[in-house]
Amino acid sequence: MEAEPVIAAEPAVEASKQEVEKVVPEEPVESAPKKSDEFAYLDAAGFSSERFKIEIKNLPKYYGINEMKKLLNVKLSLATNKIKIMRPGCPFLFVCFRDDAERQAAIKAIDGYTWKGKKLQALEAKPSPDPLVKRRNESTKPDGVVTVKKRRTLEESVTALAYLSYEDQLKQKQSEMHNVLKGFGDEVWKSCPTMRSYVEEMRKLNDGLPCKLEDIRGSPQVDGYRNKCEFSIGKDGQGEVRVGFRVGSYSNGFLEVESPDKLKHISEKMKSTVKLFEEFVQKSEYEVYSPETYKGYFRQLTVRTSNATGQVMVVIGIHPQELGEEKLSELRSSLVSWFTSEKAKEIGISSIYFQTIEKFKSGQNAHPTTHLWGETHIIEEIHGLKFRVSPQAFFQINTPSAEILYQTAIDLAGTTKQTSILDICCGTGTIGLCFAKHCKQVLGVEIVAEAIADATHNAKENGIENCKFYTGNADDLITSLVRNANVQKDEDLVAIVDPPRAGLHIRSITQLRNARGLNRLIYVSCSPQSAVKNWADLMRPRSKVMRGGPFMPKRAIPVDLFPHTPHAELIVLFEREPEQDEEEEEQAEQKKDETEKVEGKVEGGDEAAEVAAEEKV
Fold first, then answer.
1. Are 38 and 129 in contact (CB under 8 A)?
2. Is 396 annotated as a binding residue?
């Protein structure tokens, strides 16, 4: 670029012809740094379904992911690849397909279709940008420096209350449970007008709450209590390979992984296991997996420990990429050698599993695991009972506090030897088996077949014969469980509900409401804020769908299973008035008819004669 010479306005001395004029070039203008392509991920294998996305609008206020899957994949016979609900009750969502032909077929089938009284709209949607790349582009200054949000430390992210004394942590959680129940009362007031008088009456008795809130039960073990953790594998800010936890979310521009060494709720045994595996990954020829590029192999390490036996189970999660069976076999062999070393024996590693973590295939709901070495399970103890725990089965992460949780549920249930228990979302049968000696029988249901196998084994191992466990979706099996319970006139039925964080599907709530003989329900929630809608549905007045009477909240008891974090479990006891059985209703109806006939005869009018004539016909 040429620059004009700078000439003095009034030169003191005339420059000689031999002098060279001074030229001061302008400073070059820097071009803005090149932005990264926010859609580059579309070319990565396995992520092309974003190219074939649609938006569905005008959805009803209440629907669930399972209902939506059933509508799209079963009723409309579509082949969805991914369904993305933005938030509960959102009037729109996005659905991805495998190719454009499937997308166009979906638009044709959905657009104008009436579902739950709403006429749906369907149209093509643009693919979503990579949130990490988008955040980086938004945060890039003209000089090329990337600024990201000030990140919290790992301790602040994972154990947000660790700076407080445990007594103050419990006070804060008690206050949070009070707020949750207050919100529950507000929700019932808003959505169930016929219940307002009841809510107001309860508020006067319970410090503004719809039921009595008792004091929180603290955890017997405050530090190192977690018996299971899923650790990420990545690199820290200096590029060193780490096994630990991510310090922030992908969408906020964070990929760094930091060590769990300073976290109070992780045991020393688990920290030692993490360190041991971190050394293996650092020495390995294979790279760690990157969620940004979708390249690399090591993705996750799951560690399970037993308070009772000291056993340690490790599950190594790998993305195989293009590795052939020979290479994978070598990798599995090297993992076994590493985790059976003298150092591993000192830690107590007793079980090694290999897990393949790839994108879910159609109908798949868990990543497959392969047993490599040692015991197939670890053994844990609660209430004097032994429980076999498999790699993917649910088990409360704080064993000492789980004992308090289950005893609290047993006390609230008020069972006798004439009580049948429905254990909904039973997992490995821990709650049901703890109830077994306090009741007539336990019938449990769980969608994970592996967990049901554990539950059945646990019953047999402990010599418990009054428990039966069934594999299946609770949404479909509750009515069958009630039938199988075969509750007699002088017996009672109690349901124990311990659902995942999202709560129960409305179909399960409906079946519980319509279950004859079920008049007491214990709801155990690990996410009370998410359970409020379930609780409100239990209280709704009768309708054509919910024919059974409403359940009313009576007592709520928080139990702390998660010291140093803001989370706690909340157990709520619901009760309803016993309903007349079919025989009593029929007798009452006959008695009513006879009374009306007698009254008609006493009056002596033509109406009595007409009734008699109709009876003859």
1. yes
2. yes
Beta bridge partners, 370, equal 354
Collapsing DSSP to helix, strand or coil, 328 comes out as: helix
Confidence of residue 590 (pLDDT cuts 50, 70, 90): low
Contact in structure between 320 and 328 (CB atoms under 8 Å): yes
Residue 221 annotated as part of some ligand binding site: no
Would the annotation count 560 as a binding residue? no
CA-based max dimension of the chain: 143
- Nearby residues of 490 by Cβ (< 8 Å), 6 or more positions away: 418
- Nearest-10 Cα torsion for 271, 277, 279, 284: -160
Q: Give helix then strand counts, H and E, for the chain.
A: 17, 23
Q: Is 553 left (phi over 0), alpha (psi -120 to 50) or beta?
A: beta
Quote the tokens at residue 103. Answer: 């997308």
Residue 177 is encoded by which pair of tokens?
Answer: 């449970």
**Cα 132 from Cα 47, distance rounded (Å):** 15
Q: Which residues contact 253 (CB under 8 A, 6 or more apart)?
A: 132, 135, 136, 139, 146, 148, 149
Q: What's the start-to-end Cα distance of the chain, in Å?
A: 111
Q: Residue 337: what are its φ and ψ, rounded to 5°? A: -60, -40
Q: How confident is the model at residue 607 (pLDDT cuts 50, 70, 90)?
A: very low
36 three-state secondary structure: coil
Q: Burial, 181: exposed, middle or buried (Cβ in 10 Å; 0-12, 13-18, 19+)?
A: buried
Residue 510 · residue 476 · CB < 8 Å: no
Distant-in-sequence, close-in-space partners of 552: CB < 8 Å, separation ≥ 6: 198, 211, 539, 574, 575, 576
Which residues are CB-neighbours of 486 under 8 A, at least 6 positions away? none
Q: Give pLDDT tens digits for 43-90.
A: 665 556 788 999 999 999 878 787 888 899 889 999 888 888 888 778
Per residue in 449-508, pLDDT tens? 888 999 999 999 999 999 999 999 888 899 999 999 999 988 999 999 999 888 898 899
Catalytic residue ranges: 526
CA distances from 170 to 209, 337, 481, 526, 576 (A): 19, 44, 38, 16, 31
What type of residue is 15?
A
Residues 348/312, Cβ–Cβ less than 8 Å:
yes
Confidence of residue 336 (pLDDT cuts 50, 70, 90): very high
Q: Which of 53, 68, 61, 65 shows the shortest CA–CA distance to 106?
A: 53
The residue written with tokens 């897990």 in the block is 355
Q: Which helix (H) or strand (E) segment is 372 a member of?
A: strand 369-374
> What is this structure's pTM?
0.77
- Dihedral sign computed on CA atoms, order 606, 610, 611, 612: positive
